[in-house]
Amino acid sequence: MISQTNKQLAHRALDFALKNGCREARISLYNGSNSSFEIRDMKIDRLQQASENALSIHLFVDGRYGSFSTNRLEKKELEKFILNGIDSTRYLAEDPARALPDASLYYKGDGADLQLYDRKIETVEPDDKVAIAMHICDEIMGKDERLVASESSYSDGDNFRYMITSNGFEGESANSNFSVSGSASIKGDGDARPSDYWYDSSLYFDNLQTKGIGTKALERTLRKLGQKKIASARLPMIVDFMNVRRLLSPVISALYGSAIQQKNSFMLDKLGQKVVGENVTLIDDPHIAKASGARYFDSEGVATRRMPVFENGVLKTYYIDTYYANKMETVRTIDAPSVLTMPLGSKNLDGLVASLAKGILVTGFNGGNCNSTTGDFSYGIEGFLIENGNPVQAVSEMNITGNMLTLWSNLVEAGNDPMLSSSWRLPSLLFDGVDFSGM
Question: What whole-number distance in Å separates Cα of residue 439 and Cα of residue 222?
Fold first, then answer.
């Protein structure tokens, strides 16, 4: 965690910067550690352990702005570092949009503990971490004669942050994380080597699922045997909860102030308009206890709040930080998403599949892109052809094409199976009228 000594050092550094030419300044301290153990075919393939202490300082000098970081946290070294930073900043072009946020927007420190840190991270022994990864690999090894390779991993980490500004903000946060994964590769038809994976992650060690990860990874791999293209068609599409983020990411990126200001967004000038289907309601809910991504303040100290991003298809907000708010002379919101949630439906993934007479279940994306200005996209996909409510054929080497606004206007139904370990708590989703290109 951030020591009291280093906090005092940050305050002295802030005072020193202001006394030596800064109009405003923000200082952030970071302390973190991480470890990882990777297993391949029941042998340790790689291990890594690292820790870091760093200080970053944002300097506002004579209408100019500079950002600098160092891990040399000693008073005299730090003073020299700040003086060099101030001198360097004076060489930069003036930019009147660079400023600290309005102090009235800052988080005031009155929220309950979000419970994002598990002290157990301090006591889990390396032997236990290796044993977990080995067990996952063992769930794969020797379970099928076509197996080519099995891999597994365990990783954990923590980070502590402390931030102060010259116009009155002071805040700190602590987070822990744990994750495991397993993957398998098998010999398929000809030169094909189907592979797949499964994983789990959690802020708390005791909530981490460590059993069945390898078994699930192997099951997902085996079901890919016999993958092939099918005929091109326009069909309903289900995207499982592990992959829906790929389709939402371009939409969220289009909401950032940088994209709006540079007119590189298919969401330009659409605030307050119905831009996607009525079934699309997306909430940014940053104060959920024990939730990955939860936070009381953003990277500049501005207080977060629960807010709709889309409400029955209507765009309700952009993500605009101080710089772009000043550039566009508009209201500052939040710099980025925290915890994204959607209203859940009544069906899990199997239920969504069972509801289709014919369609395609997408279980992975293989390359592709989305035009940030128009929203037109093309993605490679793999998954399963569905007929009469059942997966009947593994498919691959197919593409979906279309436009993001059209796709999200055709959202039919959300599932009830979000991955709660993710900061984007999205369920499996069913879309209608998607163009698939195959044979």
Answer: 24
Burial of 299 (0-12, 13-18, 19+ CB in 10 A): middle
Residue-wise pLDDT for 208-246, tens only, equals: 999 999 999 999 999 999 899 999 999 999 999 999 999
Q: Which residues of 254-292 are buried (b: 16+ CB within 10 A; e: fewer)?
A: bbbbebbbeeebbbeebeeeebbbebbbbbbbbbbeebb
pTM of the model: 0.94
Q: Could you give phi then psi for residue 221, rounded to 5 degrees?
A: -70, -45
Looking at residues 300-312, what average pLDDT do you find? 98
Which tokens sit at 198? 């499964």
Q: In terms of Cα–Cα distance, which of 404, 427, 377, 103 is closest to 255?
A: 404
pLDDT one-digit tens code per residue, 355-386: 999 999 999 999 999 999 999 999 999 999 99
| Residue in 135, 114, 290 with CA at minimum distance from that of residue 207 | 290
SS (H, E, C) the chain: CCCHHHHHHHHHHHHHHHHCCCCEEEEEEEEEEEEEEEEECCEEEEEEEEEEEEEEEEEEECCEEEEEEECCCCHHHHHHHHHHHHHHHCCCCCCCCCCCCCHHHECCCCCCCCCCCCHHHHCCCHHHHHHHHHHHHHCCCCCCCCEEEEEEEEEEEEEEEEEEECCCCEEEEEEEEEEEEEEEEECCCCCCCCEEEEEEEECCHHHCCCCCHHHHHHHHHHCCCCCECCCCEEEEEEECCCCHHHHHHHHHHCCEHHHHHCCCCCCCCCCCCECCCCCCCEEECCCCCCCCCCCCECCCCEECCCEEEEECCEECCCECCHHHHHHHCCCCCCCCCCCEECCCCCCCHHHHHHCCCEEEEEEEEEEEEECCCCCEEEEEEEEEEEECCEEEEEEEEEEEEEEHHHHHHCEEEECCCCCCCCCEECCCEEEEEEEEECC
Which of 249, 276, 252, 254 shows the shortest CA–CA distance to 264?
254
CB neighbour list of residue 162: distance below 8 Å, 6 or more residues apart: 2, 6, 7, 10, 28, 29, 171, 172
Phi and psi of 253, rounded to 5°?
-60, -35
C-alpha 178 chain-centroid distance: 15
Determine the pLDDT at residue 245.
96
Residues in the chain: 439
